[in-house]
């Protein structure tokens, strides 16, 4: 895997991209409704291969049933599965939600740990999910890269696009650490605003038109 070469031109390009993101997107919120680290963790887990809109439709009913690890740990997987069915992959996601809640109670005093390795050991929690929770709930600088960020970063020639892991490494090297959490959300919202479901027209996009 080749690391993107840093040049003065690339640094200027990154600054310009940040200026445009600030102007077009501002400081966006996390798109998943939540009230604390635990409800964010569950919502991010549910968002795998599902839209955030759909997750936000399902979580009110789920959190009415249980919105703490202690309460969720007592639920049956079948009951949770019936509620989250619209999100897809419901057998795996329901087992993960109940299972991780039991582990949080047994090993973390009912709290979501502020620790990437402990988070990644939870069932259903991968590197991206763990980073989103660390960034948005604990303010830890991270740069979670999903397929949308990977695609835009590749189009903008900020990375070779060889893998999500390489994209994360390149973006972290290119942008100041204190801006990572904001940039992660800005690029997600930028994709939603400017990438239509169908069609791909770089000329109409405020960044793709010159950076691609
Ligand atoms: S040109 Fe438009 S649709 Fe294509 S990647 Fe850029 S923003 Fe998305």
Helix content: 55-70%
Instruction: Give a list of the ligands.
Output: iron/sulfur cluster
Mean pLDDT: 94
List the domain count as a whole number. Answer: 2
Within CATH, the superfamily of the largest domain carries the name: Hypothetical protein, domain 2
Describe the protein in words.
With 212 residues, the chain is mainly α. It folds into two domains: 8-29 and 142-211, Orthogonal Bundle (Endonuclease Iii, domain 2), CATH 1.10.1670.10; 37-138, Hypothetical protein, domain 2 (Endonuclease III, domain 1). The protein has twelve helices and no strands. It is elongated and about 55 Å long. It starts with 7 loop residues before the first helix and ends with a helix. Iron/sulfur cluster binds at residues 152, 155, 194-195, 200-202, 205, 208.
Note the main attributes of this structure.
212 residues, mainly alpha, Endonuclease Iii, domain 2, Endonuclease III, domain 1, 2 domains, 0% strand, binds iron/sulfur cluster
Helix and strand topology:
Layout lengths: L7 H17 L12 H10 L5 H14 L3 H5 L3 H8 L5 H18 L8 H5 L6 H12 L8 H9 L8 H11 L5 H15 L13 H4 L1
The site of iron/sulfur cluster has 9 residues, from helix 9.
